[in-house]
Structure formats: structure tokens, C-alpha cells
Amino acid sequence: MIVIVDLLMMLMDMTYSILCAIIQTFLHPRLKCIDGELCLITGAGGALGRLFALEFAKEGAHLVLWDCNTAANEQTAKLARELGVKVHTFTVDLSKRRSIYETADRVRAEIGDIAILVNNAGVVAGRRFLECPDELLERTLLVNCHALFWMTKAFLPRMKAKNHGHIVTIASALGLFTTACVEDYCASKFGAVGFHESLAHELRAENHDGIKTTLVCPYIVDTGMFAGCEIRRELRSLIPPLEPLYTVQQSMKAILGEQQMICIPRLMYIPFLARALLPWEANVVTYRFMGGDKCMLPFIKNAEMKTSNGHVKAS
Ligand SMILES: NC(=O)c1ccc[n+]([C@@H]2O[C@H](COP(=O)([O-])OP(=O)(O)OC[C@H]3O[C@@H](n4cnc5c(N)ncnc54)[C@H](O)[C@@H]3O)[C@@H](O)[C@H]2O)c1
Q: Is the residue at 18 inside a domain?
């Protein structure tokens, strides 16, 4: 008898959540105030990281910016300080657990508790799998996935103690469905999505409802990370690469609206659902039609033209 009552309650809650989600799609959700909160952003020297830093600064959040590229990180800090917020920078190698833990200790001791953690840093090997040096494959997993474990272990305990915080994972549409020739990246982003969702379930199961989570899954963004990647010419205007600022502004709406997940653009839910619902061969023929099966080849050619430090090979 109790199970029937529980089932009915669950169905009512489910219907209510679906209705809320539909309404939120059409209405502007109420955005939370983060004025004076301390926000840590990884990969803050990069394209999206810098834009996130500036958007959080516009909302009045004080910033802790992490990147391995000191000069780029300092440039982001300079721009954010002009918006009147306090900014602290740290040079960290996110592929090294010790570097993360040591820097996190310094942040907690010298600055304070992090309220919003934006795990944004990411890399891609940009080589064909069998031609890719093992270290590059490993680095993608370390930065895009393992670093999430260590960042969360470092900053979640204080969030739990206060039942206050927000963990944001910048994953990718390639964490929800895949394409050819980005094995390292897909593996790392599927890992990031799995980690994020499991953590979100854990927080809910433990009734830590003051700690929010947001998973961001963008399609290709015009930042240079996937420069050259292209689908079939006739379809390119239907799904063009995203503008970096648009991507970050959409993500900010989801974060401040305490939305659990956002795919940018919404069209990305279609291949995500197709992967789950259609037979494998049906997905293969769709990819082939759209040019999705070979879309990474020009990108890989581009990446191969460069050495690991970004200079074009003399050849
Ligand atoms: N650009 C895209 O097409 C796209 C699409 C979907 C998701 N994303 C994700 O968005 C995030 C940001 O991407 P972006 O386009 O701004 O990339 P980007 O290359 O411009 O920025 C990445 C930043 O991470 C930093 N970084 C890399 N390795 C690091 C390490 N070991 N330690 C510390 N910092 C390190 C880099 O120095 C750089 O500043 C990434 O997680 C990426 O996977 C990007």
C-alpha cells in the first residue's frame, strides 16, 4: 500500500518538475544574486574562462582565477579588476593533483571559502588516436576529468559545512554524444558528465539542497579550440559554431537560474536523444549525411600543422 502512495506521489512530483521545466523554458527564470560571493574559475586565461570571469565580475562576484598560462590569466585579472571586483590569480597545472591541492590550500588559507566553483579548463589532443603520443591522451583525461575530482575534493567540504555553494562543470556536447577522431576528448567529457551528475545526485540524496550544480554542454564554440572542424557545407548555416560571448551568457543564465543542465544550442538535445533511442546504424547514416563522421579531420590537420607550443611547423 505504501509503495502505491509513494508511486503516486512520485508521479505527481515528476509531472510538477516537467511542467516547471517547460514554464522556465518560456519564462525568464529568477536569477540569484551573487554579489560579494567568491568564485573560482579554472582556465581563466582562455577564451571562455576570460568571458566567464568578466560576467561573474559584472554580477559583483570576487574572483579567484586559475590557469597554467600566467600571462593570459593576469590579462583576465586586469580586465576583471577594471569592473571593480577583487581578483586573485594563481598559476596552477591542473594535470597535477599535487599542484591543485597545494594551491587550494593557499586559496582557503589566504582568501577564504569558495562559493562558486567553475571547472572550465579543458584541452584536446587534436591527433588521430593511433598517432597521438600517450602523454597527450593522458593529459586530456587529467585536465578535463581527473582535475574535477581534485577540485571538488578540495572545495566541496566547506560548501557542505555551510550548505551553500555552486559547482559548475563546463563539459561539452561531446560529453553527451560522440564523433570520430576525438577519442581522448569524448572519453574525458563523458567522464566529466558522469562525475557531475553522480555528484549532483549525491548532494540531493544527502539533502545538501543549498549546494547547486550546473552542467554546461556547448556545441563547437568559435574560440579556436576546434578550429577547422566543419560539417557538410549545406548544413553549416543551420548549426554554425557558437559565438563565445553568447555561449557564456547562456551559461550564466543557467548558472544564476540554478538550472541543472544546459545544452547550447538546444538543438544539441537531438543527437543526444538519437544516440540513446536510435539503433547504432541509424546514427551512423545520419552522421554520414551531415558530414559529422569526418567533421574533425580538417581540425586534426590544422592541429598537426602546429607544434605543442602553438608555433606553426616550418615543414
Ligand atoms: N571551444 C569549444 O569549441 C568548446 C566546445 C565545448 C566545450 N568547450 C569547453 O569549454 C572549456 C573552455 O574552452 P575554451 O574554448 O575557452 O578553450 P581555451 O583553450 O581557450 O581555454 C582553456 C584554458 O585552460 C587552460 N589550461 C589548459 N590546460 C591547463 C592545465 N593543465 N592547467 C591549468 N590550466 C590549463 C589553458 O591555458 C587555457 O587558458 C573547455 O573545458 C572546453 O573543453 C569548448
A: no
H or E stretch covering 214: strand 211-218
Closest CA to 169 of 137, 130, 208, 122: 122
Bridge partners (DSSP) of residue 89 are 65
Distance CA 158, CA 106 (A): 14
Tallying the residues shown for the chain, one arrives at 315
The answer as to whether 144 is a domain residue is: yes
Question: What is the Cα Rg of the chain in Å?
Answer: 20
Angle between helix 280-290 and 269-277 (nearest 10): 150
8 Å CB contact between 223 and 134: no
Q: What's residue 307's pLDDT?
A: 52
CA–CA separation, 50 and 73 (whole Å): 8
Domain membership of residue 25 (yes or no) is: no
Q: How many domains does the chain have?
A: 1
Ligand 1 probe mutation, 221, 222, 250, 261, most atoms within 8 A of CB: 221
CATH number reported for the structural domain that contains residue 255 in this entry: 3.40.50.720
* Residue list, ligand 1 pocket, CB within 6 Å: 43, 45-49, 67-69, 72, 92-95, 120-123, 143, 170, 172, 218, 220-221, 223, 225-226
Domain span holding position 94: 32-304
State which amino acid sits at residue 118: V
Low-confidence ranges of the chain (pLDDT < 50): 309-315
AA letter at 315: S
Pocket test of ligand 1: the residue of 54, 68, 139, 179 to mutate, having most ligand atoms within 8 Å of its CB, is 68
In a domain, 12, yes or no: no
- What residues contact 210, with CB distance under 8 A and at least 6 apart? 162, 163, 164, 165
